[in-house]
Specification:
- GO terms for molecular function: NAD binding; oxidoreductase activity, acting on the CH-OH group of donors, NAD or NADP as acceptor.
- Keywords: NAD, Oxidoreductase.
- This is Phosphoglycerate dehydrogenase-like enzyme.
- It contains twelve helices and twelve strands.
- It is an alpha/beta fold.
- The chain has two domains: about 130 residues, NAD(P)-binding Rossmann-like Domain (Rossmann fold, 3-Layer(aba) Sandwich); about 180 residues, 3-Layer(aba) Sandwich (Rossmann fold), CATH 3.40.50.720.
- Helix 5 links the parallel strand 4 and strand 5.
- The protein is elongated, with a radius of gyration of 23 Å.
- It starts with a helix and ends in a 16-residue tail after the last helix.
Length: about 325
């Protein structure tokens, strides 16, 4: 008996989080040569089959089980997450595997459209004073407000990645000027101009809307505080679809209560769900939504397309997309 006969070749194995497997039962039909194994969302134990994994499509999963798989599956080559950002992942075991060559990829195009549509809807709603009109309706009051033209306004988009680009072209199509802010300041299609983070002080006084769509890193944590709000127009509105810790909440509350800025739309928070006793709930001119900007009925199709694109690339030996570029910074 030859060694090949004694040691049968293990099937190419992909681990999929339970909630994703339930939404994408057609993966097995698309890849008949691949063995797909479902990993429970909660609890679960390390199974011998997991040790054969080559790829993982990860969403909700026990952090302990994830670490066990990282330790016990030596052939695991890449992990794709169902999120747009990497900041919620970490730990020494993951860092070790990345240093050894394992790749981590994100679902780079799954949420760009719904988040951009949310941003546009919220900017237009604030321009039309919709929160004021809804409060008046609750009180059975007939109030008259004067809207602000969105056309001719300036939108500052912090983060010129896929979400930022989707916001940019939509804003320009409605007649706004769009300035991008990024770490590098490299020109990006769809923006009239792009500046570096170091040039923020000169950009903020020009903006009627400030959109936060950048990743949370050690460099961007609390990027917006009292100094930044002081530079903004008193008529300006800030929209945060990034991460809660991009903002200094105390400074934001002060800026809103003192009418230093006109409004804030917040869809991400340091603690989620937002505690019932958080002062943000009742802050003047703040609109609170429960991290819902990314939720849309087209997400499953986009998540599957993102994952299959990378799985196809991997099976063909080609470079993956949406990879973690700066592991030390978390994006």
């Amino acid at each position: 008996m030859t060694q090949a006969e004694a040691e049968p070749v293990q099937p190419f194995t992909v681990l999929v989080s339970e909630n994703l497997a339930e939404r994408m039962p057609y993966l097995a039909d698309r890849y008949p040569q691949v063995r797909f194994l479902t990993v429970p969302m909660e609890g679960g134990e390390m199974r011998s089959e997991y040790r054969d994994a080559h790829v993982m499509f990860r969403s909700a999963m026990s952090a302990e089980l994830f670490d066990e798989i990282l330790l016990g599956a030596p052939d695991l080559a890449f992990v794709q997450i169902s999120a747009a950002g990497f900041d919620w992942m970490g730990g020494p075991i993951l860092r070790k595997r990345i240093a050894e060559g394992m790749q981590v990829t994100r679902s780079a195009n799954s949420y760009n459209v719904p988040i951009a549509e949310y941003v546009m809807g919220m900017m237009l709603s604030m321009a039309r004073h919709l929160p004021t009109l809804l409060r008046a309706q609750e009180d059975h009051e007939w109030v008259r407000t004067t809207a602000r033209d969105f056309a001719g306004s300036t939108v500052g988009v912090f983060g010129t990645g896929a979400i930022g680009r989707e916001v940019a072209w939509r804003s320009r199509s409605l007649g706004a000027q769009v300035v991008g802010v990024s770490r590098s300041g490299v020109a990006v299609e769809g923006f009239e101009e792009v500046v570096t983070s170091a040039e923020v002080a000169g950009v903020l006084p020009r903006c009627d809307y400030v959109v936060l769509a950048m990743p949370l890193t050690t460099e961007t944590r609390h990027m917006f505080g009292a100094e930044q709000f002081a530079r903004m127009k008193s008529s300006a509105v800030i929209v945060n679809v990034g991460r809660g810790a991009l903002l200094d909440d105390d400074a934001l509350i002060e800026a809103l209560e003192s009418e230093q800025i006109a409004g804030a739309v917040l869809d991400a928070f340091v603690t989620e769900p937002l505690p019932a006793d958080s002062p943000l709930w009742s802050t003047k001119n703040a609109v609170i939504t429960p991290h819902t900007s990314f939720r849309s009925d087209g997400n499953t199709d986009r998540l599957c397309a993102d994952f299959c694109e990378n799985l196809d690339y991997y099976l063909k030996g080609e470079p993956l997309v949406g990879t973690m570029k700066e592991p030390t910074l978390g994006y």
